């Protein structure tokens, strides 16, 4: 800039004077503009000093980390550890306010549960989801009228009555098919390990499709796999027992594939610095357009099918969609309008239901299989508790019924599921935006700041960082001692150990499940916590029980448990091997 202006001074005499004055002014303006665009920290909260000297803030650091690990959240938790402060800020979006990161369970509970007027759904969520489901309530602020209208459509889906009468039987039936598939594979594999994550992915997809649309078992992925596999010719076992059995995987039916493709595209918007733009670009690709068209066609067909069943006078509800359509009928009557069944709202909520319920369950279950394979004693204890609790099923050498699984309390089972939540770390945090100027741990936070409440660092998976009580809010101080704390032993905090959720009830001499034994945020907390957690619970309970009831997950050979598995087991734990033996009664 400086050199250029010197040249022009000598070349263009008539305007020399003007240049002399204008150039420094321009430079000053540009410089000031540049300074304005540089990341501007919130006073007092620790940050990486060098990030404030670049327009891109922490982004290069983050991208670098992502290139190495394909993950982003652990980097965020690392900042908390690096600065040894339960509150830090990072500059993750160009020209925008910093993100504030909190890793302190009491502060997170206080905000998510009690300070809901000062904190609402963040734009970050909308940025991620808008490309796929612009009209799903996950992106709406709690204060928006639309939020209430949409939730009203979904009102019944998580009630115990609906879950037991409609969703439960769908989950159970699909899980039975899954057990049959693994029975077949166990027999053929004869002690060889085989790849399990694809099967888990499929059964989770079946379950959520069935819950949404009420499919017949014959339409399920798992059933299709089983059929094609049982008629496959050359299922040769490798020589050595340390080599896995290479079962073929067959193509998923096209509709399932389309949903899987679209759901997986979210990964891109979660990780991109400009999520809306990144996802927009992706959506222009032919395979994405095709998947979207297939999805729209599926939904339209399903709505028609459901409507014709409902109008034919069948009283039996088979699916979430049946229920949503009836809710729309009721809402229309109340508002004195005619019902709109093929609406963006219904399509996007339906898709949201599929997105929310598939990958989450599938990933949690895959992690669980990994953990249980490594924790043989947990498996043995859990199986023996199941055998004695479902005494009738044990005596009759059959699977426990859905009613038995739902109704009979087993503290060790609850503890194992809770431990699945805690360790699977599907979402490493909850995100909120400040709706007013407010404070967090004693610092002033301006309105419109995104705050990340993390559960993958200090306080959860490593010892908590000290917080001075004088920095806490009145509501936080009043709520003191609500959730327990883990023994601050990092090794133990990272271990899969269901016992941490059990307390001995000295009077009854029995173990009791205690959900407040220690901190985790697997489903978020408060009014905007996970909508589907009751259903997730039901899915995991049924699938886990049926899996352990029928199979022993033996240790896998080093060859498959280390190399291939470890590094791929990130967001999509696609490589997970099992070595099964039929469990004996
Ligand atoms: C293991 C399974 C699951 C996990 C770990 C999980 C986790 C979460 C988390 C962490 C949130 C954000 C909470 C917050 O911001 O405080 C969330 C939101 C949500 N989840 Fe789940 N989820 C699971 C299963 C499901 C299922 C089965 C469904 C639906 C069928 C579902 C539907 C939703 C919806 C609709 C929201 C947005 C709620 C709102 O905006 O108010 N999730 N989930
Ligand atoms: C701060 O960021 C620079 C690069 O932007 C990086 O090299 C350095 O390690 C970071 N420091 C800390 C404490 O994270
Ligand atoms: C969550 O955090 C833990 C620890 O930092 C990490 O191992 C895990 O992969 C993370 N999960 C996701 C989905 O990023
Ligand atoms: C969030 O999004 C809304 C609507 O798109 C916008 O009006 C608002 O300014 C955004 N807030 C922030 C902090 O970016
Ligand atoms: C843990 O998971 C189960 C369902 O999987 C749920 O009912 C329970 O509320 C969860 N606990 C927490 C603290 O999120």
Automatic annotation (TrEMBL):
**Where, by residue number, does heme bind?**
530
PROSITE patterns xrefs: CYTOCHROME_P450
Which SUPFAM superfamilies did the record assign? Cytochrome P450 (SSF48264)
Enumerate the cofactors the protein uses. Answer: heme
TM annotation in the entry: 16-34
UniProt lists the family membership as follows: Belongs to the cytochrome P450 family.
Protein's recorded name: Cytochrome P450 oxidoreductase
Species of origin reads Cladophialophora psammophila CBS 110553
Source taxonomy? Eukaryota, Fungi, Dikarya, Ascomycota, Pezizomycotina
